[in-house]
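Supplementary Note 3. Input sequence used for the single-chain structure prediction.
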Amino acid sequence: FDCIVVAVDTKVTPSVLEDLIKLRIPILIEKPVGWHPNQLTKIRDNYKELTDNIIVAYNRRFYGGVQQIKDFIQNNENGIIKLSIPDSISTIRQFLVNGCHMIDLLSYICSNLKIKYKKCVFDSGNNIRTLVAVAEGNKEWQILIDSKPMVPANFEISASTNKQVYKLKPIEILEVFDEMKIIDPSDDVPIRRYVPKLKKQYIEEAKFKPGFLIQSEAFMKFCKHRKISEGIATFNDAIRTLELCHYLIEGNNLSYEDYI
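The predicted structure, written as discrete structure tokens, is reproduced below.
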């Protein structure tokens, strides 16, 4: 074999990975790789440099709109990032398997992420009712995170600074606003309104599932040249994402054994 692609049930992913990593060839593996970061750190401790062969399939990193908002954040400072995860399912499992996409994106677009405050409220069935957090990133970017499952809303990431707003809502559509537009009263709406004026819009190419084609090309380049392309999520990135996810919901007596 020249390379391996792994997409199996998350419950068995760590054990499958432990068998395959010994082949010492490139592996593209479905996120989040395991349910608990301890499962991943155990593999890293046992196989050390062999984990450099692992690429994790966080495909949304390869969205064109994500790259644009990442560049905007890196080229500016003292802004505000808002991240919203209104999932249609309120279980902890769903937050780990789906919410991890958003937490990974946040780590990717804003470096040196540090959580300053967080609170997660659960119902009697151990499902997430609300989650809020405040964080800080590089260049003094302030970050607001919220998750309110079961509400009619899209996943969203926005970044605001220097009279501009970059907004991914949903993540496949980027909109950029640079000023306010005045709408005078009308018969239908008898009040004056001030609304953001759209400067440009970018919609992901959908011939293939967004991000998949560019991700596959990056993986092939890695297989041939062992070169890490922009957007690739490493095994250490996957560990960091799971650590952040668990930290945000910590305090509910979650244990390693709950997810194996």
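The radius of gyration is 20 Å. The chain has a mean pLDDT of 94.
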